[in-house]
C-alpha cells in the first residue's frame, strides 16, 4: 500500500490555523506541492513566514473562496505555480451559534455558503481540471482525490449550533453525491468527521473555560484530546493511492466520543 504523495499538488482551504494548517503542513512535509489558502490574509502571512521565500513547493493564496471569481483565481494560481492539481482538501469551517427556535435566515445562509456551498463549487471546478489532466493518461489508479472535513455535528444535532449542524450534514451528503458522480472519472471523494480534537475553535473555548478539558477527556473513551496532526494523517491516507478503493466514505476520528457522550458545542 503506497501512501506516497511525493510530487502531487494539493489545495488546502482553511490553512491559516488549526486543523487546516496541520493538514497543509503535513502534506507539504511529505513531499507534496501545497497551496495554503484562507480568507484571513494576516493569519496566513503569519504561518507562511516559517517556510521562507525560497520554498518553491508551497504557495499561499488569500481570498474568500465563497466568491466564484476568487475560486477561479485560486485554481489559476495553482496551475501557474505547479501545472496541475491532484488533491483538494476542503478544511475551511465557519462556526457561529444560532437560536434553534429563531434562526436568523442570514446566519443560516452564511453557514451553508461558507461550510458547504463554497467547498462543493470548488470541488466541481477542481474536478473538471482533474478530468482534463487524465484524458491522455492510461492505466490510472486515480485521477484525483477530494477530502472534505466536517465535525460530529453533522451526525448528531447541536441545538445551539443548528445552522452549523445543518451545513455539516449537507456537506457530508455532498461528499457522497460527488463520490458517485466522479467515480467513473477515477476521482475519489471522502470526508473526515472529527471531535475531541484540538482545533483552533477548541483552543479558544478552553481559554474561556479551562474545566472543559476535563469534561471532554471524561467523555472520550480513549481518554484524551487528539492533536490536529491526527486529522492530517487521516486526510493523507484518504488522499493517497493507499485508499484507491475508498470513496464516498465519512471517516470518524473522535476517540470513540460519538459512541459514549452527547454532542455539545465544545465538540465543534
Automatic annotation (TrEMBL):
Q: Which SUPFAM superfamilies match?
A: NAD(P)-binding Rossmann-fold domains
| Pfam families the record matches | adh_short_C2
- So which domain of life are we looking at? Bacteria
InterPro entries to which the protein is assigned, alphabetical: NAD(P)-bd_dom_sf, SDR_fam
Identification of the protein by name: SDR family oxidoreductase
Amino acid at each position: 500500500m503506497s501512501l506516497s504523495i511525493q510530487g502531487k499538488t494539493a489545495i488546502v482551504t482553511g490553512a491559516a490555523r488549526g486543523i487546516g494548517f496541520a493538514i497543509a503542513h503535513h502534506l507539504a512535509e511529505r513531499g507534496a506541492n501545497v497551496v495554503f489558502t484562507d480568507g484571513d490574509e494576516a493569519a496566513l502571512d503569519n504561518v507562511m513566514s516559517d517556510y521562507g521565500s525560497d520554498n518553491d513547493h508551497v504557495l499561499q493564496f488569500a481570498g474568500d473562496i465563497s466568491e466564484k471569481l476568487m475560486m477561479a483565481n485560486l485554481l489559476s494560481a495553482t496551475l501557474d505555480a505547479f501545472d496541475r492539481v491532484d488533491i483538494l482538501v476542503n478544511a475551511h469551517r465557519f462556526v457561529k451559534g444560532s437560536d434553534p427556535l429563531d434562526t436568523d435566515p442570514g446566519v443560516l445562509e452564511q453557514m451553508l455558503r461558507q461550510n458547504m456551498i463554497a467547498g462543493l463549487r470548488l470541488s466541481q471546478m477542481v474536478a473538471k481540471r482533474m478530468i482534463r489532466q487524465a484524458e491522455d493518461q492510461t492505466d490510472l489508479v486515480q485521477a484525483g482525490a477530494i477530502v472534505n472535513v466536517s465535525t460530529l455535528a453533522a451526525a448528531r444535532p447541536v441545538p445551539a449550533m443548528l445552522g452549523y449542524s445543518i451545513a455539516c450534514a449537507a456537506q457530508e451528503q455532498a461528499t457522497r453525491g460527488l463520490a458517485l458522480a466522479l467515480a467513473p472519472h477515477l476521482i475519489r471523494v471522502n470526508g473526515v468527521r472529527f471531535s475531541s480534537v484540538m482545533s483552533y475553535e477548541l483552543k479558544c473555548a478552553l481559554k474561556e473555560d479551562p474545566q472543559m478539558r476535563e469534561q471532554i477527556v471524561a467523555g472520550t473513551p480513549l481518554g484524551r484530546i487528539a492533536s490536529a496532526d491526527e486529522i492530517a494523517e487521516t486526510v493523507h491516507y484518504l488522499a493517497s493511492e493507499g485508499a484507491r478503493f475508498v470513496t464516498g466514505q465519512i471517516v470518524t476520528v473522535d476517540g470513540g466520543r460519538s459512541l459514549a457522550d452527547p454532542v455539545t458545542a465544545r465538540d465543534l
